[in-house]
Amino acid sequence: MTKQLKLAIVLMTAIVSMNVNAQKKATVKTTKPKTAQSTTESKTSKPTKQETMEWIAGKMKENISTHSDDVFVSYKDGIFTYRNNYGSRQFCDYSFDLNKVTTMNDEYSKDFYIQGRQLIYVQCDYDKAGQGNFYNNLSMSGPNYNNYRTAFSFTPDQALVDRLKKAFATLIEYNATKKGADEKF
User: Fold this and answer.
1) Are 75 and 162 found together in one domain?
2) Which terminus in the chain has less CB density within 10 A, N or C?
3) Where is this region: Disordered (predicted)?
4) How far apart are CA 121 and CA 118, in angstroms?
5) Does residue 25 share a domain with residue 109?
6) Are 114 and 138 in contact (CB under 8 A)?
7) Which of 130-134, 149-153, 180-184: highest mean pLDDT?
């Protein structure tokens, strides 16, 4: 029985080593060198302005703060609106116009905010129609040193904050005023 056991162990070892060698050869054969076509396929194109705004609005909708009674109302053509209920029948509607985002914090700041002229419009139940207030700054995450308006809870997810910064940088490029054909600077 011991001779058979020794023979079985030797055979198993030989089979295992053959399988390992076969696997090594298979990986060498299947590896393809990169060609110009395969590298261009892996690159993604820059999203359009509309796609960028829709992605940002989707993340804003997912992350409306739950510490107060904030409720998503609508999103259309770059305008994101939510309602803040501050009483049993009292509310304010906040509209963020993503088409007006023109700047954001510098890359070294822990305080992530966006800015734009009349970026936020706030219409409360006690305001007459069209007589709300405009604000130019919105805090997205971080310590909010300047006490800007904030409605989102992006701070705990640093990977999402980094992706939002890239998306806003892209949006700012789209929103930048373009030089006229006759302008030199």
Assistant:
1) yes
2) C
3) 29-51
4) 7
5) no
6) yes
7) 130-134
- Confirm whether 133 is domain-assigned: yes
DSSP notation for 150-168 = --B--TT-HHHHHHHHHHH
Q: Which domain holds residue 127?
A: 49-175
Q: How many domains does the chain contain in total? A: 2
What is the C-alpha separation between 179 and 67, in angstroms, rounded? 44
The CB density around residue 37, as the number of other CB atoms within 10 Å, is 7
Q: What is the per-residue burial (b if ≥16 Cβ within 10 Å, else e) of 125-152?
A: eeeeeeebeebbbbbbbbebeeebbbbb
Same domain, 102 and 65: yes
Q: Which tens digits make up the pLDDT trace of 10-36?
A: 666 666 566 555 555 555 444 555 544
Shared-domain flag, residues 80 and 138: yes
